[in-house]
Known about the structure:
- This protein is an alpha/beta fold.
- 12% of the residues lie in helices and 24% in strands.
- The relative contact order is 0.06.
Amino acid sequence: MYTIIIILLLILSTTAAITTLSSDITALKAIKSSINPATIPTYTCLHSWDFTSDPCSPPHVTHFLCGLSCSGDRVTQLTLDPAGYSGTLPPLVSQLTQLITIDLSDNRFHGPIPNSLFSLPNLQTLILAGNSFSGVSPPAITNLKRIQTLDVSHNSLSGSLPKTFASLTELTRLDLSFNQLTGPIPILPKNIIQLALKANSLSGYLQKQSFAESTQMEVIELSQNSLTGTIPGWFFLSPSLQQINLSNNSFTRFEILKPVNSSLVAVNLGFNKLSGYLPAAFPAYPMLASLTLSYNNNLKGRIPWEYTKLTRLFLDGNLFIGLPPKEFFTRKASVSGSLGDNCLKSCPAWSELCFKSQKPWSVCQKAYRHRGKLESKS
């Protein structure tokens, strides 16, 4: 009995002895003081940060109810609730050297991201999405050697990205969408699985060196940029790729090579400037179910029957001619999408695929230069 009492006393004394490292407390105070008090409602995590008690010492009954986690006397997670906090992120955040996770998403933080943040040696998750951070993309971002998830989407970052992220060997998810970033796509790290750079102003071509080492990539989201040139055949061939979205760019043509062990399920190339003919090899991708090539493109010729194998197909707003494959309209057909706004003949109005009307004859005639050529092709 006495032994049990002694053990309990030792446990209690050890627990009570935990006091947060003073430099961590200084950093936490700086974070709270950098936020406008008027944006800290009484029900929020930050309101419970009352430094009359110790941040890492349990029990948290009235103070430090949420917003941070500790291991021993060090803060390891800074995860604020999306309460609309408005303020800046102070450079003193770098004193929280044991941080593994920072999540400040869906608030109203503004100003530059302090370079000191990227000196945190143990940071694995950095989520600053849905704020108003501004300034140029910090070159020091590549110093986060242990980072696994990096999400700074929906902010106002500008300038070009670092030339390479190759040193971030543990990075699996990168999302910098909805910013104002410019320049080419950087060299990507080898273990990345999800890449999202949507709605920026990235430009240039798809360079093989950017993607050469990223053989585990499953999702590529590059829509709403200013990328141009040819979408090369190798781009579709990575065996791990499942989803590709390159819509709303300025690509002018694309190449399709014979697939080998492909996992590709969905491809969106709509709203580009693509020209040429539909390659019969595209439906040869064994798992491809959804393909979008809608609008702003100028694809011509007949629609190969192989495309009837897909379950979602959007070819509207091009210049396709002739009779659409009859397999689209059988009872067994399970294709949804649109073939409208083309130059097709006899696209049945009862089919969902043909709800949109076809282009006027004059438009089609002009696209194929003269009526005889159009009739010969259709």
